[in-house]
Each structure stands twice: as C-alpha cells, then as structure tokens.
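Reviewers asked in the last cycle whether our approach scales beyond single polypeptides. To address this, we selected a multi-component target totalling 367 residues and predicted its structure end to end. The input consisted of the following lines:
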Amino acid sequence: MSRLALIMIPLMVSLYLAPVQAGDTISLNIHIAEAPPTARALAGYGVIGNTGDQDITIESVHSSLFEAIEIHESIVRDDMAGMRPIDELTIPSGTELALEPGGRHLMLIRPVQPLSEGDQVPLEFTLKNGNVHRITVVVKKPDHDHSRQHHHP
Amino acid sequence: MFKNRILQSTLFITGLIVLGALFGVFTSEYYQRNEDPEIAGLLWPNPKQLRPFATIDQDREVFGLDRMRGKWSLLFFGYTHCPDICPLTMATLNEFYDQFKKDNLNNDLQVIFVTVDPQRDTAEMLKSYVEYFNTDFIGLGGNQLQVDSLTRQLGIAYMLYEQDERGDYLVDHSASVFLVDPEGRLLAVFQAPHTPATIHDTFLEIRDFYNSQS
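The resulting structure, written as structure tokens, was:
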C-alpha cells in the first residue's frame, strides 16, 4: 500500500464520518408508506423537528434503494390535484414540520427493488450547512387516519 | 232558476279554480322536491347520458358503456406514478367499499380507477395497482385516445408535464370521484377531500333518491 493511501484512507473515512457526528438539533421521525409492488414512486411521511435556536434547511435526500428522492407538496385547487417539487425544506428553530398525506412529503422515485411493509430503507439528509444525517426508516402500511384529508372536511 | 244556474256555474268555476290552484301548489311542490333534493354533488335533474366509449381493463378486455349498464360505477382518475393523492384516494375508496361489502350492499357497485397516463400505466401495472387496494376494483387504460373516449365525456381535466432528465414527469388530474348510474348517466361528482363516511352516506342517499324516481 502506498504512503499516499495510508494518509488518504483515514482522511476520507474521517471526512465521511464527520458530518454524522455534527451537532445539529434535527430530529427525523420518518417512515415510507407501502405502495403497490409495481409502484415507481413511493411517499415518505413523518415529522422533522428542530429543537435548536438556528433554522435548519434540508437541501437534498438520497437513498441507495431509490434512483432519486425529491421533496414534494401535493396541492388540490379547483378540483385539480397535482404535486410541486420543493427545492429545499426549512425547519425554523424550535418548530416541527409534518410530512403528511395530501401535503408535503418525500417522493421516493424508482425503487431499485420492490419494497413492502417492514423493509428498512437507509436515508441520507443533506443540510444546507453541509452536514449529512443518515437514518434508517421502515416501510409501513399507510395510516390514513392522520391525513390532511380528514383535517379539512 | 236562472239565478240558481248562475250561482251553480259560479260555484263550479270557483271550485275548478281552487282545485287548479291546489293542484298547482302540490305539483310545484312535488317537482321542486324532485328537482332539488339537496344532495351534495348530485347532477339533477339533468344527469349527462354517456355515449359509448372503449377503454381497456387490467385484464386487457375492452371496457365500454355496456359494462356500466345495470351497475353503479364510482370512478377516480389518476396515475400509478402518483405516490400521494392517488393512493390516498384509492385507500379511501377501499375503506368505503369494504364496509359496503360487509353490509352486503356492493352487488351492483363497481369501483374503477382510470389512468390518465396510459403511456406509462400498462395493463400489468394497472392490475397490480388496483388489486393491491382491492381485488374487486377495476383498472382502465388503453391508449390515450381510448382513455379520452371516457375522460372527454365526463369533463375530466388532466395535464402531463414535461419529462425530466430521468424521463419522469408529473401529472395534474381531477381530484373528484365520479358516480355513473345504472343507466350510464353521470349522476354525481364527489369533490375532494374524500372520506369513506361521506362517500358512503352520499352514495346511499343518491341511490335512494334514484330508486324513488323510477
């Protein structure tokens, strides 16, 4: 092994690990809603909290089990339903942000394998400050009792 | 004698006028009640009669107006790449339908998902999609012309966006659920947001009203 590699490998490992250990005040309570086996897009819901005194902005989300992940918002206006991508998601300090059916959600595009209830999915949230948070979330049967559709009769 | 006759005629005419007025009041009340039963979404007294159309179901069979006759059809228009609103509505329809089935009320009812994105939604995908929610549900597609032979008649608006670099695209579509009666007429439109309970109650109310009219 070359001397360069001896220096570079620990350096790369430490760079890789550093963001995970950074002290952000974000809490990620996320799950993925199970979808039909042939679904090419799934939705991620949950609550993202920020207990700190700084706003937190999520710039991108990635997973090795999906080709792409976007943050979307569903909109129903004049009887037309649609989704709009959100470039970044800011969680103001001391607040919680809900990702819920019929509202803001993660759109997980093109799963590399069919997923069903109980499967675990690694997610990587990249913040605007450069920090990366890696979590593992579970695929759950959708629970529609808590959807926005019920909150706004 | 002569006076008596005038009196009789006057009484007779007055009686006719009173009867006519009463008849008028009753009939106008009767028609008013039937023209405006005050059920949300009901298109009465002028439900739209559908013309023949030809879509393809999840088993690759032709699905036209003949398969709606004699049945109540609840239709929702969406696309299977839709991860949020469509599964949410399908799950709501399933919850409603399950309750209906438990109460043995589903014999003349079919729930239909129509894709407005048939280019991506093949029969196989539709089959897997609708049957995930309920094996009784029907999925309709075909080519865009076949799909439009139904959407145009119901006034379904939808819009396909431009493809992104992955070849994916978003679709805007109607959020309503459409009710076609056993004569093939668009009888009601249920607007979002939907809940199993509102679909259940409104549908029963409309079906009772429909039966009272025949």
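The radius of gyration of chain B is 24 Å. We regard this as preliminary and will revisit it once experimental data from Aim 1 are available.
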